[in-house]
Amino acid sequence: MRIFITGATGWIGSALVGDLLARGHDVVGLARSDASEERLHTMGARSVRGDMTDHDRIVEQVRLADATAHLAFTLDFGAFEETIDNEVALLAAVGDALADSGRAFFAASGTPTNAAGTATEDDPLDPDGPAGARARTASAVLGLADRGIRAGLVRMPRTVHGEGDRNGLIAALVGLDRQLGVAAYVGDGRNRWPAVHVGDAARLVRAALEGAPAGAVLHAVAEEGVRMRDVAEVIGRRTGLPVGAVDPTDLGVFGALLGGDQPASSVRTRGLVDWRPTGPTLLEDLEAGYYTDGRA
């Protein structure tokens, strides 16, 4: 298949490009810079220059492709509502271009929180929750399935980990711990984060593009919930920092993230598509030193 990817040189996008090429697909990635274009060409993919504001160019590539993976998102807290408005408008244009085509369009989103327990694929995103900032765009993607498009969501857990991760939440947590002088957790540290290795996340996106049904909501969750006390203990052991509880109010926005409990399941996903995660666990990647020994 010819597959178009936004966010093709990002953390998950880069892994997806390699996976798709290995499967013999023709890959075209959206590139914002010369460096991004060069990276795509080095991997063996083709590129088209543009960013998320270039709606006409993106829609043209979506129309030419058999399937599209929409992984790009511009995180600009200074213009957050405008960013969401732009993405929703882009998705409307995609709907007009692909209506009744049956072609695939899968977008990345985040796993939700279920206050009663472990979140499943049936749980909606809470607009006020950790992944809620993109609830409006997630709804717009699922709306495409009502227009004859094989559209759906691949919801990513709070940490998509692996060697080379420099910008994810675990990398940010290690950096914050170094600033605080303590491998931190909140409360008793029994709160949990779901996790997946980046290679497994990419394979699920590929499985979605190749055959997931319209309206599918998939969870890229390998581990339903890793206790943050366990994470802190590995970070402490690898860095030599003491391990201890911190007041979340001292951490700003990160305090709510560090202290939140957000286990999530992928049982339904594994029954819907052929996906079985095989990559290292989060604690294994931490023990390997990817996040603490200057090798991330």
Automatic annotation (TrEMBL):
Signal peptide limits: none
Q: Which domain of life is it from?
A: Bacteria
Q: Name one Pfam family in it.
A: Epimerase
The record ties this protein, via SUPFAM superfamilies, to: NAD(P)-binding Rossmann-fold domains (SSF51735)
InterPro entries, from UniProt? Epimerase_deHydtase, NAD(P)-bd_dom_sf, NAD(P)-dependent_oxidoreduct
Give residue ranges for domain NAD-dependent epimerase/dehydratase.
3-211
- PANTHER family found in the cross-reference section: NAD(P)-BINDING DOMAIN-CONTAINING PROTEIN-RELATED, PROTEIN YEEZ
What is this protein called in UniProt? NAD-dependent epimerase/dehydratase family protein
